[in-house]
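Obj.: predict assembly geometry.
Materials: sequence records (below).
Method: joint structure prediction, all chains together.
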Amino acid sequence: MNILELQHLRKYFATQKAVDDISFEIKQGSIFGLLGPNGAGKTTLLRMITGIFYPDEGNIVFNGRKFDPNNDIRYIGYMPEEKGLYKKMKIGEQALYLAQLKGLSRSDAMQKTKEWFVKFEMQSWWNKKVEDLSKGMQQKLQFVTTVLHEPKLIILDEPFSGLDPVNTNLIKEEIYNLAQNGSTVIFSTHRMEQVEEICDHIVLVNKGKKILDGTVMDVKNQFKENIFQLGAKTDAHHLATYIFEVIKHQPEKLLLKLQHDSTPNDVLKYFINQHISINSFNEVLPSLNEIFIKLVEGTPEARQFEKAEVKS
Amino acid sequence: MSKISLIIKREYITRVRNKTFLLSTFLLPIVMILFIFGTAFFAASSKDKLKKIAVVNDPGYFKANLKTDSTRLSFDFAAGIDSVNYQSKGYDAVLNLQQDAAGRKFIIHSSKQIGIDTKRNIEERLDQAYENYQLQQKGIRKEILDSINRLSSGAYKIENRVTDEQGKSAEVNAAVNYGVGFGSGILIYITMFIFGAMVMRGVMEEKTNRIAEVMISSVKPFELMMGKILGIAAVGLTQLVLWAVLITVLSSAAAAFFSGEALQQASEAGKSMPMSGNNAAMAGKFAEMSKAFGSVNWLLVLSCFAFYFLGGYLFYASLFAAIGSVINEDPQEAQSLMLPITMPIIFAFIILSSNLNTPDSPVMVWASMIPFTSPIVMMGRIPSGVPWYQLLASMALLVAGFIFTTWLAGKIYRTGILMYGKKASWKEMFKWAFRKS
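Observations (raw structure tokens):
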């Protein structure tokens, strides 16, 4: 079942098309990666999903019905890229306040806050003010306030920026847990190694358009270039053939690219016939990083200078 | 609990618990009372040391007529004193009664400045001595003149009775009306600035802390703005009520405390001063004043004050919120954008202070209708009586005005609060405000 469907969303600002006809679907319980370079339209897209902006055109279907920001907003938890909290407010009160604004009763909010504070070992922080916390601690608090009301859809924009590896793992674990318990997570970032590790499904946007959509495996297969790595002792004279092209040659290792109609079996046969003993042979799939750079590179950088005007 | 009431509660509680609020609420009245009573106390208790003044070159009639004040001044007509040796003979100053060429001017020599009070005191005594001398010359007895003066001064009084539409006439006291009108006008003026700026800083804080986006994913921008405005309005009302209570309690307590000693001393000092009236006259004046205060329709003034305080605050607070939403961290930007909003407030105050003597002049009537100036100007007019249709029109316009500014500000706010990096121009803000969404 799809928790969220975007149908032909458009959002035009005075000077540019921030989101230009984007459609995709997100399955419930999945961890979804929304990728794109700076200024691609990710934040605008997320703001439409969180009800901050209204789309100029297109529909958002949330949980099987047309998205109604006034009511559905309580099922969404949004952690924007620019994190912020009331600096002068005590931490416990802040968490309670934000949870109550999401529609929790005071007693529910209190219970949930306590649970999460215990889970993240934050109990002693309750009466501290936000301005007394380190940046990483603030980030943890921000994450707690985002998921406190058990949203069906959790939107995290760069959730790991500024976190140390220990806390990054802590939050990552929680993201997995939340997804396992039925929450859906939208994860927006340009840190590709995290996406590869965490996400089931990804969409890449650039210049307001969707340029890629699929599972991580699908996308990698789509962009594979028939590159294989062979573990074997080879010399230069072994490699004169039309079956493959050598990309990188090391005494123990060989990186090769298949030519047009050859198959991996042709490669193996070729080496076996030369009585070379093979230790390993495997396909090398491109990393998301490489795919990302390949797709995005070369597009004009005009969007780096976005006009700051927003329209709602 | 609805979201807006949650926001109001937070705004209210965080501000009321704040140290600055507590300090300004409780310290200000105390400081004010201490200041007023302190100055009264010191003025009353600071008595001049007796000044010994030697008088030389008496033309002949001063010695008999110049009265010595036992506590402050003593005149001595001893011979052989001049402006060189007076100090060595134990005098503070020497008064030379030889008139200079220009006429009625005497010279008093002293090592230190003699002070305004002493100078005036000596002048009064000299005038009196001269008067006595003249009376004697013309054959009039001083006692007879004094008794005539006593009878005639304050024998007649004018009471201004104003008849309203219902034919009911009431005594009015222009001075008290002036005071009450000016006082409430200035109070609205000051509180509008204080609490308007508080709204603006609150919005700026949310924006620069970057919590605005988190909040707006939970509540509507308009709810966030209104919650802040109403929460701060509640803070303002709390502070005004606390001030009123504290000032009443403290001033009556202070009056009771001081009246025992200082005021008695003050009245003693007053008694010994020749020109001030006697105690009975003073008491009469007090009675008159309290009667005049009683003539003010306090119920009307206070309820109108509450209305115009809230109305004026709501009218301007949303504009301050809109300004807060479009500026970034730079306080300089706030200054320049605030100017068009603070100008009408200052303008209203100028109208009030320069036209308060004529509360029914066209300028005052118009200024008390237009919502930009009405909260301040109308308060100046109310004590002296405003036709009810004007009052209703002014109130209706103010309500319509704040609905309009709130709507306008709401549209600017929802765009401005999420916009970073660049200051919005007036043109852009105008576009946000009037585009259809």
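Conclusions so far: DSSP finds ten helices and 14 strands in chain A.
To do: check interface contacts against the pulldown list.
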